[in-house]
Write a structure and sequence with these properties.
316 residues, single chain, two-stranded antiparallel ribbon, disordered C terminus
Length: 316
């Protein structure tokens, strides 16, 4: 019995030593302990048409940080619930969002959601969507850099202790971010005379000024380190202890459906297309009135077009 107690005490001491050693390594090298892949997902990654060609590289980097994540096809997003119930959403190089999706994202963030974004997010969207994304992310993609530049800590790094880690600062081919909100700050800058912003943050967003997940823009290790640091920033705050976003969908897919190898054929209409001798059929009582169907195009009868053409010819 005494021998068993001695062995049990030795095992306890050995376990305590290993745990202390791990904490020491994390503190010395600035490495945040990653969530085990067997744990509950805390991250949702958005798949879109713009990052389809980069998806293999994006996936490799995601696996490198050793976290469990879900994949959200942006085409499936029609409401705030569709952004999921995980409290961190990652938009890697997503350049198109519809007005419905942008408004849903605003609602989702209002419930406690956090966003990590990279690249020219929303740059191909409608003007109203671009304006809303600027507000949500605290800035926007101004222009692309002509060549690679060094990312370096901002002068206000004391306000961004989460960037005080190894492996975050290196050569990257990205773009200049323009902060446009009094609550946004530059967490990292480009090594240029004007120290333009490379990473912009707000309380609930982290905006990376390069196309994350592409080998032509940045090294895989640098990408993984930035995502891991941003993820830790948004999940370790005392004010954000909630594990789920209220009303968010718990559905979690870990893969993306393969895109069709050939274009999807357009269905043939059952009715023949109109010809000059067969006028377009419009709803009843709508041809002579714009009140019932505002904004609808009303075709001019053929004989009127001929009269108009002749009158213009006579005038000339």
């Amino acid at each position: 019995m005494k021998n068993q107690n001695k062995c049990h005490n030795k095992i306890k001491k050995a376990g305590f030593f290993i745990f202390t050693f791990k904490l020491l390594i994390f503190n010395c090298f600035g490495i945040a302990p990653a969530t085990a892949t067997t744990g509950e997902p805390v991250l949702s990654v958005v798949h879109s048409q713009e990052n389809q060609q980069q998806w293999a590289e994006i996936t490799q980097r995601l696996q490198a940080i050793n976290v469990n994540y879900c994949v959200i096809p942006i085409a499936n997003v029609r409401s705030a619930a569709d952004w999921g119930d995980r409290r961190v959403l990652f938009l890697p190089n997503v350049e198109r969002l519809t007005p419905v999706q942008a408004i849903a994202l605003q609602e989702w963030m209002g419930k406690g959601g956090n966003v990590i974004a990279s690249g020219p997010v929303g740059s191909l969207s409608d003007p109203g969507v671009r304006q809303l994304m600027r507000s949500l992310l605290g800035g926007y993609w101004g222009f692309s850099l002509n060549q690679t530049q060094q990312i370096q800590p901002s002068k206000t790094q004391k306000n961004h202790q989460w960037t005080n880690q190894n492996g975050l600062f290196g050569q990257v081919h990205g773009g200049v971010l323009i902060p446009n909100n009094v609550t946004s700050q530059a967490a990292a800058v480009w090594n240029s005379p004007d120290n333009s912003a490379a990473v912009v943050t707000t309380e609930r967003s982290t905006f990376l000024g390069w196309r994350w997940g592409t080998n032509t823009a940045s090294a895989a290790d640098l990408d993984s380190n930035w995502l891991k640091a941003a993820l830790t920033r948004h999940t370790s705050r005392s004010s954000q202890r909630q594990n789920k976003i209220a009303g968010g969908s718990p559905a979690c897919s870990t893969s993306v459906a393969a895109a069709p190898s050939s274009p999807i054929p357009i269905p043939t209409p059952h009715s023949p297309l109109p010809t000059p001798h067969s006028p377009l059929l419009l709803p009843t009582n709508s041809i002579n009135s714009n009140k019932q169907y505002p904004g609808m195009f009303h075709p001019t009868p053929m004989h009127q077009l001929v009269v108009m053409k002749r009158s213009r010819f006579n005038k000339s």
